Fold this protein.
Amino acid sequence: MSNLPQEQGSPDVVLEARDVTKTFPGVLALDKVNFCVYRGRLNALVGENGAGKSTLMKILGGILRPDAGQILLNGTEVLFDNPAQAQKQGIAVIHQELNLIPYLSVAENIFLGREFRTRLGLVDYAKMHRETTRILEQLDFHVEPKCIVARLSVGQQQIVEIAKSLSTDARIIIMDEPTSAISEHEIDVLFGLIENLKRRGVAIVYITHKLGELFRIGDYVTAMRDGKVVGGDVLSRLGHDDLVRMMVGRDLKDLYRRNRVETGDEAMRVERLAMRSHGRGGIDVEDVSFHVNRGEVLGIFGLMGSGRTELLQIIFGYRAGHARGDIFLGAKRIMPASPGEAIKAGIVLAPEDRKEQGLVLGMDIASNVSMASLSAVRRLGFLLKKAELNLANAFVERLGIKTPSVRQKVRNLSGGNQQKVILAKWLATKPTVLLLDEPTRGIDVNAKREIYCLIDELTAQGLAVVLVSSELPEILGLSDRIMVMSEGRKTAEFLHREANEEVILKAALPRSA
């Protein structure tokens, strides 16, 4: 099946995959895939995690070679041995996983391997800084070219990745989940830039799980499932439900499943939590108080920089020594000095960056699931392998983790299944409070629904859930109460029946906005 659009005056095809096939050990990742990229258009690629989207993009970007099939660039067959060859032909890839060197500057990252040189052969930093400033101004992103990348937030680093791509003057730009970690303002800037690039004839390939974005900026869409192209059309002919049906092969009714029941007693109370931002002199969190009951989902919404993540980190003991305030579990006062103390008390955190902070990617599922509850699978200091396997298999079945074996390395799982492994690890500790920081970021719509059903199941069993999310429909769909933060402060709180997007966004805007 091809994604060729049937419309009068279709633009030129600049990049094409014909019958591309790619196999990994035991997995047919791409099965005779046909995909066309059109000049001056945004060509969206959608599908569940594991559908083959990223594999196809890696082939188009020179990271992988196909086992069979052809890649045509402006009608001529090409075969890239590495990304540098693709880049020389005008193809740039912006990966979902950041590809920056943290202890180099913004300018050094943008021009890495392509540094400007003086007549004496030395690096021309002055020119690099000027060019970096020029590119960043296009993105309405104001940061010093000399700034070390490690000091930037995840969202800011994503903008640097985009700037790096623009610096190559690419004619085809592949964007894999470019908005997964950037603020609403940065998204608006990016979309404006995309429209500008399209007017200049640049072809954009755009992978996203945020289907609503596509109707703002997209032209064509291609859907993949199980390594095959299963549909494609002009976006203006489709609706949201059509896209979902194309991706998963069925309708998804009631995405935000939430059986709201009367909540139980107070599970956790936080009083006047505060933390001064380490090394920057500002305040990340200032005198925030709230409570969450057993069987309740407390949603926390805020724009980037509002202090949402920092608040959860304080509660989980990440920021010990920099924070003050009181945390009560029932009638008992605690203030975890480490994540270990928080876990022991019954508080667990599924972090925003699951690959860096939530998992050990090189270890298998069983080891990741058991690592926070070793006492349950250990005797006399020795690990009981059978007990560990039984624990992991029980959670694989309970959470629907798709894997051939619990001995599968976690890095080989899709994003949605990795998130389930994190939840399995924490549920094995039998917690009282589950903190979720962007639990569905970067996972497909079907995996999202599975996570939502799990949250509903857990709260029905009396677990208290604190949910941080950047997606307003998710916050509104899942939360019993909603707390809003802005500039490190709690600015509002609403019952579910009182909340809507307008009142939440109004409370989330900085006072200077």
